[in-house]
Amino acid sequence: MLMDGKGMRTGETACRKKLLIESHSERKGVFSVAKIMIVDDAAFMRMMLKNILAEDGHEIVGEAMNGKQAVELYGQLQPDIVIMDITMPEMDGIQATGSIKSLYPDAKIIMCSAMGQQQMVIDAIQNGARGFIVKPFQKERVLEEVRKIAGGAR
Fold it and tell me: What pTM was estimated for this model as a whole?
């Protein structure tokens, strides 16, 4: 009988590793890993989103504090998904979404809004946003929207 360095039979170690990988894959879903850029003027909100997304295995490729920065960074980073706040200084999320979509028609943008901003969400979707999440963030809702929008993004 072959033993590994931890006193386990080698077949047992391989089986445990396989189970870990399978359960990890099932929990995350087939299309779970995406390169994401987060855009919000509030550092705390960016940090909350970053923690939720990183815990689910997504890669945060960049952050911006306003829409103007988002438009500039998008071309450099080419993220799979952008999660963008609506209300920000310099350039709001609706304008930034329109600018990004005019340059990169395939961009996948999810808008963040506070309760009571329904008209702004409608405006954002008319400017090319593909989805939205409401603040305060609920982990499962954020992940559900990212998985839906990712649709195979890698």
Answer: 0.76
Q: If DSSP codes are grouped into helix, strand and coil, which group holds residue 100?
A: helix
CATH 3.40.50.2300 in the chain is located at 31-150
Residues facing 63 on adjacent strands: 38
Is the pLDDT score of 54 beyond 80? yes
Burial of 91 (0-12, 13-18, 19+ CB in 10 A): middle
Topology given in CATH for the domain delimited by 31-150: Rossmann fold (3.40.50)
What pLDDT, on a 0 to 100 scale, did the predictor assign at position 122? Answer: 86
Give the integer Cα–Cα distance in Å for 32 and 86.
Answer: 25
pLDDT above 50 for 17: no
DSSP lists the bridge partners of residue 112 as 85, 133
Is the bond preceding 136 in cis, omega lying within 30 degrees of 0? yes
Average pLDDT (34-40) is: 97
